[in-house]
Write a structure and sequence with these properties.
single chain, alpha/beta, 10 strands, 4-stranded antiparallel β-sheet
Length: about 220
């Protein structure tokens, strides 16, 4: 479904990604791990059209998408869920979710998408009229993921979903993310520590100094 070939990305004179290649098959849940500053978030942002690439190719369903911007990619079903979540704090949970369905194709499916989100995350259904700023860290992460689902996503690129969560919540968060995968959404997840992903993902790439150092199965 997704293929990245020899990807190079620079910030000015700083060469961040050095010939990264990876693939994610339809229906897979694949991880990218590595320490801070080694290019994990840059990789996701480049795939999702949020930053320019210097060279290389990104293909979705066999068609090149490098050079397309983020709204074009969202329209094709490729959605980025940021580490920072970027919620609207003074809007309700439901209002934040509805903003995920802003493109025409997503608006047509928003009732079914909302049902899916509330099925996956009953806590959000309970708090649908609550302001986003009043949510706990775990609930805020659920809302960020739910908003991505509202975009009629087929492929979700999720940046450090455990960020800011209490250790006891991390395992349950990954369980809910795997339920998204079981609902038919292909996933590419970025995390710092491989231990966070063990038992959840089919394959993991390790990124070191902007290059793929290892690929392995679970």
């Amino acid at each position: 479904m997704l293929e990245v070939r020899d990807l190079h990305v620079c910030y000015g004179d700083l060469h961040v990604l050095h010939g990264v290649s990876l693939h994610v098959d339809a229906g897979e849940a694949v991880g990218v791990v590595g320490a801070n500053g080694h290019g994990k978030s840059t990789l996701l942002k480049a795939i999702c059209g949020l930053i320019p690439i210097r060279s290389g190719e990104v293909r979705l369903d066999g068609s090149r998408t490098d050079g397309l911007d983020a709204p074009d990619l969202v329209a094709r079903g490729l959605v980025y869920v940021a580490e920072e979540r970027h919620l609207f704090p003074d809007m309700t949970v439901r209002e934040n979710l509805m903003l995920g369905a802003y493109l025409p194709a997503a608006r047509k499916k928003r009732a079914a998408s909302l049902d899916l989100v509330f099925t996956l995350y009953p806590r959000l259904a309970e708090r649908r009229h609550q302001l986003a700023r009043t949510l706990s860290g775990g609930e805020a992460q659920m809302l960020a993921l739910g908003r991505g689902l509202m975009s009629a996503a087929r492929f979700m690129a999720v940046d450090e979903p455990s960020f800011g969560l209490a250790p006891g919540l991390v395992h349950s968060m990954f369980e809910t993310i795997m339920r998204i995968n079981q609902a038919g959404i292909t996933l590419l997840l970025v995390e710092q520590n491989i231990a966070q992903l063990e038992g959840f993902l089919r394959r993991i790439y390790r990124l070191e100094s902007g290059s793929i150092a290892r690929e392995g199965g679970q």
